Amino acid sequence: MKWINKLEENSCFTNIIVLNIVVFILVSICNVYFFLSQNNTDILLYLGVSANTDILFKRPWTIITYMFVHIDILHIILNLMVFYFCGKILTNYLSQKQLLAIYLTGGIIGAITYIIAFNIFPVFLDVKLNSIAIGASASVLSILFASATIAPNTHVYHSSIKLKYVAILYMIIDIMSIPEQNAGGHIAHLGGALYGYIYIYMLNFNINLGYITEQFISLFSNQNTSYQKRYESDYEYNARKKKEEKKINLILEKINKSGYDSLSEDEKETLFKQN
Prior knowledge:
Layout: H1 2-9, H2 11-36, E1 49-50, H3 53-58, H4 62-65, H5 73-90, H6 96-120, E2 132-133, H7 137-150, H8 163-177, H9 183-203, H10 211-218, H11 234-258, H12 265-274
Antiparallel strand pairs: 1-2
Helix pairs in contact: 2-5, 2-6, 5-7, 6-7, 6-9, 6-10, 7-8, 7-9, 8-9
Protein backbone atom coordinates (compact mmCIF):
# COMPACT_ATOMS: atom_id res chain seq x y z
CA MET A 1 0.00 0.00 0.00
CA LYS A 2 1.25 3.47 -0.92
CA TRP A 3 0.72 5.02 2.53
CA ILE A 4 2.65 2.19 4.20
CA ASN A 5 5.55 2.62 1.78
CA LYS A 6 5.52 6.36 2.44
CA LEU A 7 5.63 5.74 6.20
CA GLU A 8 8.57 3.38 5.77
CA GLU A 9 10.40 5.90 3.59
CA ASN A 10 10.08 8.55 6.29
CA SER A 11 10.69 6.19 9.21
CA CYS A 12 14.09 7.53 10.33
CA PHE A 13 13.04 11.16 9.91
CA THR A 14 9.82 10.59 11.87
CA ASN A 15 11.41 8.37 14.51
CA ILE A 16 14.03 10.98 15.40
CA ILE A 17 11.27 13.51 16.09
CA VAL A 18 9.12 11.01 18.00
CA LEU A 19 12.04 9.75 20.10
CA ASN A 20 13.01 13.28 21.12
CA ILE A 21 9.44 14.04 22.16
CA VAL A 22 8.97 10.75 24.04
CA VAL A 23 12.24 11.16 25.95
CA PHE A 24 11.32 14.75 26.85
CA ILE A 25 7.94 13.62 28.22
CA LEU A 26 9.43 10.72 30.20
CA VAL A 27 12.17 12.88 31.71
CA SER A 28 9.59 15.53 32.64
CA ILE A 29 7.40 12.89 34.33
CA CYS A 30 10.40 11.57 36.27
CA ASN A 31 11.35 15.08 37.39
CA VAL A 32 7.79 15.72 38.63
CA TYR A 33 7.82 12.42 40.52
CA PHE A 34 11.19 13.11 42.11
CA PHE A 35 10.04 16.58 43.11
CA LEU A 36 6.81 15.40 44.72
CA SER A 37 8.53 12.52 46.52
CA GLN A 38 11.31 14.85 47.73
CA ASN A 39 13.87 12.69 45.96
CA ASN A 40 17.06 14.55 45.07
CA THR A 41 17.90 12.25 42.15
CA ASP A 42 18.89 14.19 39.03
CA ILE A 43 18.09 11.96 36.08
CA LEU A 44 19.98 14.26 33.71
CA LEU A 45 23.25 13.14 35.32
CA TYR A 46 22.58 9.67 33.91
CA LEU A 47 21.54 10.87 30.44
CA GLY A 48 23.81 13.87 29.80
CA VAL A 49 27.38 13.35 28.59
CA SER A 50 30.05 14.38 31.09
CA ALA A 51 33.32 16.15 30.27
CA ASN A 52 34.85 14.22 33.17
CA THR A 53 36.36 11.13 31.52
CA ASP A 54 36.14 9.09 34.73
CA ILE A 55 32.36 9.59 34.80
CA LEU A 56 32.09 9.11 31.04
CA PHE A 57 33.77 5.68 31.23
CA LYS A 58 31.24 4.65 33.88
CA ARG A 59 28.32 5.93 31.77
CA PRO A 60 29.37 5.38 28.13
CA TRP A 61 25.76 5.31 26.92
CA THR A 62 25.48 9.03 27.61
CA ILE A 63 27.39 9.90 24.42
CA ILE A 64 24.21 8.72 22.63
CA THR A 65 21.44 9.52 25.12
CA TYR A 66 22.48 13.14 25.59
CA MET A 67 21.40 14.00 22.03
CA PHE A 68 17.78 13.06 22.76
CA VAL A 69 17.40 14.99 26.04
CA HIS A 70 16.25 18.60 26.44
CA ILE A 71 16.13 21.02 29.35
CA ASP A 72 12.76 22.66 28.66
CA ILE A 73 9.96 22.98 26.11
CA LEU A 74 11.56 25.91 24.25
CA HIS A 75 14.80 23.93 23.89
CA ILE A 76 13.11 20.97 22.20
CA ILE A 77 10.76 23.09 20.05
CA LEU A 78 13.61 25.13 18.54
CA ASN A 79 15.70 22.03 17.87
CA LEU A 80 12.85 20.11 16.26
CA MET A 81 11.81 23.08 14.10
CA VAL A 82 15.31 23.30 12.63
CA PHE A 83 15.54 19.53 12.27
CA TYR A 84 12.15 19.28 10.56
CA PHE A 85 12.94 21.94 7.96
CA CYS A 86 16.51 20.84 7.24
CA GLY A 87 15.78 17.13 7.51
CA LYS A 88 13.09 17.47 4.84
CA ILE A 89 15.65 19.07 2.55
CA LEU A 90 18.18 16.29 3.08
CA THR A 91 15.65 13.55 2.32
CA ASN A 92 15.39 14.97 -1.20
CA TYR A 93 19.06 14.08 -1.76
CA LEU A 94 20.01 11.36 0.73
CA SER A 95 18.51 8.16 2.08
CA GLN A 96 16.72 7.90 5.42
CA LYS A 97 19.64 5.84 6.68
CA GLN A 98 22.10 8.59 5.76
CA LEU A 99 19.91 11.17 7.53
CA LEU A 100 19.96 9.14 10.74
CA ALA A 101 23.71 8.51 10.38
CA ILE A 102 24.38 12.27 10.09
CA TYR A 103 22.23 12.93 13.17
CA LEU A 104 23.92 10.25 15.30
CA THR A 105 27.50 10.79 14.13
CA GLY A 106 27.13 14.58 14.26
CA GLY A 107 25.95 14.26 17.86
CA ILE A 108 28.85 11.98 18.75
CA ILE A 109 31.39 14.28 17.10
CA GLY A 110 29.85 17.22 18.96
CA ALA A 111 30.20 15.37 22.27
CA ILE A 112 33.80 14.41 21.53
CA THR A 113 34.64 18.00 20.59
CA TYR A 114 33.15 19.22 23.87
CA ILE A 115 34.97 16.59 25.94
CA ILE A 116 38.33 17.30 24.29
CA ALA A 117 37.95 21.07 24.68
CA PHE A 118 37.07 20.78 28.37
CA ASN A 119 40.10 18.58 28.99
CA ILE A 120 42.76 20.58 27.11
CA PHE A 121 41.85 24.24 27.66
CA PRO A 122 42.87 25.43 31.15
CA VAL A 123 39.85 27.73 31.43
CA PHE A 124 37.56 24.68 31.68
CA LEU A 125 39.61 22.51 34.06
CA ASP A 126 37.82 23.72 37.19
CA VAL A 127 34.32 23.17 35.82
CA LYS A 128 34.78 19.96 33.84
CA LEU A 129 34.29 17.76 36.91
CA ASN A 130 30.61 18.73 37.18
CA SER A 131 29.93 19.65 33.56
CA ILE A 132 27.45 17.72 31.42
CA ALA A 133 26.14 18.39 27.92
CA ILE A 134 22.46 17.88 27.10
CA GLY A 135 20.43 18.42 23.96
CA ALA A 136 20.08 17.53 20.29
CA SER A 137 21.65 20.78 19.13
CA ALA A 138 24.96 19.26 17.95
CA SER A 139 23.03 16.65 15.95
CA VAL A 140 20.61 19.26 14.61
CA LEU A 141 23.47 21.58 13.64
CA SER A 142 25.05 18.72 11.69
CA ILE A 143 21.74 18.34 9.82
CA LEU A 144 21.52 22.12 9.31
CA PHE A 145 25.04 22.41 7.88
CA ALA A 146 24.63 19.29 5.75
CA SER A 147 21.47 20.73 4.20
CA ALA A 148 23.03 24.19 3.83
CA THR A 149 25.96 22.59 2.00
CA ILE A 150 23.83 20.45 -0.28
CA ALA A 151 21.17 23.13 -0.97
CA PRO A 152 22.65 26.48 0.12
CA ASN A 153 20.18 28.71 -1.72
CA THR A 154 17.02 27.15 -0.30
CA HIS A 155 14.74 29.83 1.17
CA VAL A 156 13.85 29.34 4.84
CA TYR A 157 10.12 28.83 5.40
CA HIS A 158 9.19 30.76 2.22
CA SER A 159 11.12 33.84 3.34
CA SER A 160 13.81 35.68 1.37
CA ILE A 161 16.48 34.35 3.74
CA LYS A 162 18.71 31.66 2.25
CA LEU A 163 19.68 28.60 4.28
CA LYS A 164 23.42 29.18 3.90
CA TYR A 165 23.12 32.52 5.71
CA VAL A 166 21.19 30.91 8.57
CA ALA A 167 23.97 28.33 8.95
CA ILE A 168 26.65 31.02 8.98
CA LEU A 169 24.68 33.02 11.56
CA TYR A 170 24.37 29.97 13.82
CA MET A 171 28.12 29.40 13.59
CA ILE A 172 28.95 33.03 14.42
CA ILE A 173 26.58 33.04 17.39
CA ASP A 174 28.07 29.81 18.77
CA ILE A 175 31.65 31.07 18.43
CA MET A 176 30.85 34.42 20.04
CA SER A 177 28.91 32.72 22.87
CA ILE A 178 31.73 30.43 24.05
CA PRO A 179 33.01 32.92 26.69
CA GLU A 180 29.48 33.19 28.09
CA GLN A 181 27.25 30.54 29.66
CA ASN A 182 26.99 27.02 28.21
CA ALA A 183 30.43 27.04 26.61
CA GLY A 184 30.35 23.25 26.34
CA GLY A 185 27.09 23.34 24.42
CA HIS A 186 28.37 25.92 21.93
CA ILE A 187 31.56 23.94 21.38
CA ALA A 188 29.53 20.77 20.78
CA HIS A 189 27.38 22.67 18.28
CA LEU A 190 30.48 23.65 16.30
CA GLY A 191 31.71 20.07 16.25
CA GLY A 192 28.39 18.83 14.92
CA ALA A 193 28.18 21.64 12.36
CA LEU A 194 31.68 20.93 11.06
CA TYR A 195 30.85 17.26 10.64
CA GLY A 196 27.67 18.04 8.67
CA TYR A 197 29.61 20.25 6.27
CA ILE A 198 32.50 17.82 5.81
CA TYR A 199 30.14 14.86 5.34
CA ILE A 200 28.43 16.44 2.32
CA TYR A 201 31.71 17.85 0.95
CA MET A 202 33.36 14.41 0.99
CA LEU A 203 30.42 12.84 -0.87
CA ASN A 204 31.62 14.82 -3.90
CA PHE A 205 34.65 12.49 -3.86
CA ASN A 206 32.50 9.38 -3.22
CA ILE A 207 33.79 9.20 0.36
CA ASN A 208 31.05 8.35 2.84
CA LEU A 209 32.12 9.40 6.34
CA GLY A 210 28.96 7.87 7.79
CA TYR A 211 29.55 4.39 6.35
CA ILE A 212 30.26 2.70 9.70
CA THR A 213 27.23 4.31 11.35
CA GLU A 214 25.04 3.32 8.41
CA GLN A 215 26.20 -0.30 8.63
CA PHE A 216 25.38 -0.29 12.34
CA ILE A 217 21.92 1.11 11.59
CA SER A 218 21.41 -1.64 9.00
CA LEU A 219 21.61 -4.23 11.77
CA PHE A 220 18.33 -2.88 13.14
CA SER A 221 16.57 -1.95 9.88
CA ASN A 222 14.30 -3.94 7.58
CA GLN A 223 16.41 -4.69 4.54
CA ASN A 224 13.30 -5.29 2.41
CA THR A 225 12.00 -1.76 2.94
CA SER A 226 15.20 0.24 2.69
CA TYR A 227 14.81 3.57 0.94
CA GLN A 228 17.94 4.64 -0.84
CA LYS A 229 18.91 7.80 -2.67
CA ARG A 230 22.37 8.94 -3.64
CA TYR A 231 23.72 12.45 -3.43
CA GLU A 232 24.71 13.85 -6.81
CA SER A 233 28.05 15.55 -7.18
CA ASP A 234 28.10 19.01 -8.75
CA TYR A 235 29.40 17.49 -11.98
CA GLU A 236 26.63 14.89 -12.10
CA TYR A 237 23.95 17.48 -11.32
CA ASN A 238 25.15 19.88 -14.03
CA ALA A 239 25.42 17.06 -16.57
CA ARG A 240 21.88 15.85 -15.79
CA LYS A 241 20.39 19.36 -16.00
CA LYS A 242 22.18 19.98 -19.32
CA LYS A 243 20.78 16.73 -20.72
CA GLU A 244 17.26 17.60 -19.53
CA GLU A 245 17.53 21.10 -21.00
CA LYS A 246 18.63 19.69 -24.36
CA LYS A 247 15.68 17.30 -24.36
CA ILE A 248 13.21 20.11 -23.56
CA ASN A 249 14.66 22.30 -26.33
CA LEU A 250 14.13 19.50 -28.85
CA ILE A 251 10.51 19.11 -27.73
CA LEU A 252 9.89 22.85 -27.97
CA GLU A 253 11.45 22.90 -31.42
CA LYS A 254 9.12 20.07 -32.47
CA ILE A 255 6.10 22.01 -31.17
CA ASN A 256 7.22 25.08 -33.10
CA LYS A 257 7.46 23.09 -36.33
CA SER A 258 4.55 20.64 -36.09
CA GLY A 259 2.38 21.77 -33.17
CA TYR A 260 1.65 20.30 -29.74
CA ASP A 261 -0.43 17.40 -31.11
CA SER A 262 2.65 16.01 -32.86
CA LEU A 263 4.23 15.12 -29.51
CA SER A 264 4.33 11.58 -28.22
CA GLU A 265 2.88 10.73 -24.79
CA ASP A 266 6.39 10.49 -23.34
CA GLU A 267 7.30 13.91 -24.72
CA LYS A 268 4.11 15.44 -23.31
CA GLU A 269 4.82 13.91 -19.91
CA THR A 270 8.41 15.21 -19.99
CA LEU A 271 7.16 18.70 -20.82
CA PHE A 272 4.51 18.51 -18.09
CA LYS A 273 7.03 17.47 -15.44
CA GLN A 274 9.33 20.31 -16.42
CA ASN A 275 6.54 22.81 -15.78
